[in-house]
């Protein structure tokens, strides 16, 4: 199966600052990569699919990039509601697999 | 809008079968793939498998020998059965719907249930 690795495990950022999260795949997943965030007590919420397309209702401060094995999620100016755990997911091969997550916390 | 709600026992004994149902409201179960995903502290998010509204299914090979999914279009719901459970199956279980954009379908998930915690213990 495709192993997804996220870094860093924890990212401390001040509100209004930029956050950059990384996700790497053990083999090429082309651009079949999604990002979610999850707040405590809630289900994950889809942010990005196709490596760079924003899902319905997702604000433009969220942007995704990359292809093949290396991907990045950038949050241009962190808002209070953005502090959460972020997961990447590949859907190029079965089984579908998720990364271990990056926790974005308030600095 | 479409909402999902998981239901089922919160406690299952080792070696027994875990059974969960996901009820779909606000829309039809037709034309989508419907998924089960679980989340545990030890293994993070794990895709269990999905079932098409017409009944075709695809399971994670790591669980395939123990998983059965089914769909009941008359009741707008789908189900998960996981046999021979152990403590490693203790997790928060989510049901979710495949994402559709402009008629294209993607194996990512935009609608999720709230999740139901299942503990395996005697």
Architecture overview:
The complex is a heterodimer of chains A (107) and B (122). Chain A is an all-beta fold. In chain A, 0% of the residues lie in helices and 50% in strands. Chain A is built from no helices and 11 strands. Chain A has strands at 4-7, 10-13, 19-25, 33-38, 45-49, 53-54, 62-67, 70-75, 85-90, 97-98, 102-106. In chain A, the strands form 2 sheets. In chain A, strands 2, 4, 5, 6, 9, 10 and 11 form a 7-stranded mixed beta sheet that branches. Chain A has a 4-stranded antiparallel beta sheet with strand order 1-3-8-7, with no helix packed on it. In chain A, strand 5 (45-49) and strand 6 form a beta hairpin. Chain A is globular, with a radius of gyration of 13 Å. The mean pLDDT of chain A is 97. Chain B has 122 residues and is an all-beta fold. Helices cover 0% and strands 59% of the residues of chain B. In chain B, the strands form 2 sheets. In chain B, strands 2, 4, 5, 6, 9, 10 and 11 form a 7-stranded mixed beta sheet that branches. Chain B has a 4-stranded antiparallel beta sheet with strand order 1-3-8-7, with no helix packed on it. The mean pLDDT of chain B is 95. Chains A and B meet through strand 5 and strand 10 of A and strand 5, strand 9 and strand 10 of B.
């Amino acid at each position: 199966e495709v192993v997804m690795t996220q870094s860093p495990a924890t990212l401390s950022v001040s509100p209004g600052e930029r956050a950059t999260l990384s996700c790497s795949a053990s083999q090429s997943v082309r651009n079949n990569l999604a990002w979610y965030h999850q707040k405590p007590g809630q289900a994950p919420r889809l942010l990005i699919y196709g490596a760079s397309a924003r899902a319905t209702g997702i604000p433009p401060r969220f942007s995704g990039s990359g292809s093949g094995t290396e991907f990045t999620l950038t949050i241009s100016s962190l808002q209070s509601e953005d502090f959460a755990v972020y997961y990447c997911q590949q859907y190029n091969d079965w089984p579908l697999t998720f990364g271990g997550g990056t926790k974005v916390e308030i600095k | 809008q479409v909402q999902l709600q998981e239901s089922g026992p919160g406690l299952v004994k080792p070696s027994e079968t875990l059974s969960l149902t996901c009820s779909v409201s606000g829309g039809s179960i037709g034309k989508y793939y419907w998924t089960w995903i679980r989340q545990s502290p030890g293994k993070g998010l794990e895709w269990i498998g999905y079932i098409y509204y017409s009944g075709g299914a695809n399971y994670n090979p790591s669980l395939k020998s123990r998983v059965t999914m089914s769909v009941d279009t008359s009741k707008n719901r789908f189900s998960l059965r996981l046999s021979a459970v152990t403590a490693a199956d203790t997790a928060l279980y989510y049901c979710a719907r495949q994402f559709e954009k402009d008629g294209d379908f993607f194996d990512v998930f935009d609608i999720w249930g709230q999740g139901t915690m299942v503990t395996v213990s005697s």
